[in-house]
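Researcher: Here's a chain I'd like modeled. Treat it as a single chain, no partners, no ligands.
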Amino acid sequence: MGLHTAIETSGFLGDRVDESYLSQLDLVLLDIKSSKPDTYRWVTGRDLTPTLRFAERLASLGKPTWVPFTLVPGFTDDPENVEGIAKFVAPMKNVEWVEIQPFHQLGAFKWKAMNLDYRNANTPTPTPNLIARVIDQCSLVASSRCSR
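Model: Modeled as a single isolated chain. C-alpha cells:
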C-alpha cells in the first residue's frame, strides 16, 4: 500500500524480533533513556544491555533510526551520560536524528488516576540553557544529528 511504517521502542524485546518483522519497518524510534546502566535501570526498571544490542543490530542492518532522548534534570542531564549516548550513536550511519525531548509534567495526572506514586512530581522541566547545553554537547560528538 506504500505506507511508511515506524515503531517506537525501548529495544528491550529486540532479540525476539525477527528479520521479517524488521524488514517491514521504514523507521525505528529507539528510546535510549541513559548511557549509564544504573541510571537506565532507575528510570526504566530494566537492564540497558538489550537496548544497546538492539541498536547495534539496527545499525548492522542499516535500518533508519531516530533516537529520542528525554532530558530529565537531575537524572539524565549529567554531561557524562549525554556524552555516552552521543558517543554510542556517533558511528552508527543509520541513526538519522537524536531528538532531545525536554521532560514535562503533562502526564502527571495519569499517575494519580491509577493511584500510583509519581516520583517525578517535583522534577522541574529543563531550562533553555540546559537544553542548549545538551544539544551542543551531543552535536559535538554526533555531528549535527542532535536537535530538539
